[in-house]
Design brief:
8-stranded mixed beta sheet, elongated, 295 residues, alpha/beta, Rossmann fold
Length: 295
């Protein structure tokens, strides 16, 4: 099957290069910005398409690697073209195939969403790391069959989910990828208050951050958990709370309550009632403070 990419951004370039490296046939790229399509075609040694219809006609599979908010507009343009028998895909983690491609059955084409569970951060480098990524699929049964045939040569692990699960799936990815960065930012900010320069703070945190992520990925959160919450060290938790702003106390408290859930699995015989009471009390104080400020 010959694959064309509509959208020459980070995801389109990364997937196209990854496909070509594994011997898949990529026709090329179309993008509303001619320069982007030209650069992507050169990067993947494929073709730049100046006309939208040409890439549609010359491709058996079309990946709409455009921002989520534009997928619908691109689909409206495609669905009036001769696409019978083609596989139409998007790479959004949040949208289902049905949401993205309404009315596709009338066209004779089949739909599938294919989302690599991976943070594509660099247009020209991220393809090197895709070998370890899961590809999560969702869509019509025939579309999933065709997509699996297409990606089989890549040897990446594949997981099929229901369209109704896409929002929760994407939320899980965002928490693990994006919201973790908010916590790293918070740690850096606290160290800067202690006199560390940002670069120093990153260097100090790197071993504990990388080590913890590695352990969590290999052994799971329960086995990897350490720290004052795991030990039910109420005095240390109280000290932590005392050095934080009202807003950050709320964040710390909510996360600590989640850590207690993990700790109780790890230590079934350890007493966490007093710590839970402390955190519940602090949560109520934080919420009352927040509500008072809003008033």
């Amino acid at each position: 099957m010959k694959t064309g990419f509509i959208g020459a951004g980070k995801v389109g370039c990364s997937l196209g290069k990854y496909f070509v490296m594994h011997g898949l046939k990529v026709t090329g790229y179309y993008d509303s910005e001619d320069t982007a399509a030209k650069e992507a075609a050169e990067f993947t040694d494929t073709k730049q398409y100046a006309q939208f219809l040409d890439i549609v006609e010359e491709s058996d599979v079309l990946f709409l690697t455009v921002p989520d908010g534009i997928i619908g507009k691109v689909w409206e343009r495609i669905k009036s073209m001769p696409i019978e028998g083609r596989l139409i895909c998007h790479c959004s983690g949040a949208l289902s195939a049905q949401e993205a491609f309404p009315g596709i059955k009338k066209t004779g084409a089949v739909a599938c969403s294919i989302h690599p569970m991976f943070a594509v951060s660099d247009k020209y480098q991220s393809h090197k790391e895709l070998k370890n990524a899961y590809f999560t699929m969702e869509g019509e049964a025939e579309g999933i069959v065709k997509a699996k045939q297409l990606l089989d040569v890549l040897k990446n692990p594949v997981k099929v989910i229901e369209g109704s699960q896409k929002t929760m799936y994407h939320c899980a990815a965002a928490i693990c990828s994006n919201q973790v960065l908010a916590l790293v930012w918070q740690s850096i900010s606290l160290l800067q208050t202690c006199g560390f320069a940002e670069e120093e703070a990153r260097a100090v945190l790197a071993p504990i951050l990388c080590g913890n992520v590695s352990h969590a990925a290999e052994s799971g959160p329960v086995k990897s958990l350490t720290g004052p919450v795991e030990r039910a060290d109420i005095k240390t938790v109280e000290k932590h709370l005392s050095c934080l702003s009202d807003k950050d106390k709320l964040l710390y408290t909510l996360l600590s309550q989640k850590l207690v859930e993990i700790a109780k699995v790890k230590h079934e015989d350890r007493e966490y009632d007093a710590l839970e009471h402390l955190l519940d009390t602090q949560l109520q104080k934080s919420l009352a403070c927040k509500h008072g400020k809003e008033q």
